[in-house]
Design brief:
The chain has helices spanning about 20-50, 60-95, and strands at about 15-20, 95-100. Strands 1-2 form a two-stranded antiparallel sheet. Helix 1 runs antiparallel to helix 2 (about 60-95). The longest helix is centred in the C-terminal third of the chain and has 33 residues, at about 60-95. The protein has one domain. With about 100 residues, the protein is mainly alpha-helical.
Length: about 100
């Protein structure tokens, strides 16, 4: 008797309809907001170092690297919580978000 490992041999790509719950939506958007804020802080710090822009209000690189990711995290979580009722209603209308890819049960 052989046991097939599903992690090493993925199934063919297929589509699935999903709806995220509030916690999953908050975690996903929070991660996106944090990474976006970090990227923005790195970009503005780099542009200030090479002299293309001048940072006036956030003139410290440490403040940039701490403030922008936290602001991105806060606002993305806030808007996910505020927008969740609309997201839930819209997913019910269209019978879920349509995703395609490899899914592991």
């Amino acid at each position: 008797m052989s046991v097939q490992n599903t992690d090493t041999q993925p199934n063919p790509q297929h589509r699935s309809a999903v709806q995220l719950n509030l916690l999953s939506l908050v975690l996903l958007t929070g991660l996106s907001g944090f990474c976006g804020g970090l990227a923005w802080a790195l970009i503005t710090s780099f542009l200030d170092m090479i002299g293309l822009i001048e940072l006036v209000k956030f003139n410290s690189y440490v403040v940039n690297l701490l403030t922008f990711p936290l602001m991105g995290l806060f606002f993305s979580v806030f808007f996910a919580v505020v927008g969740y009722p609309f997201y839930r209603w819209r997913c019910r209308q269209i019978r879920g978000q349509k995703l395609s890819g490899f899914f592991i049960n």
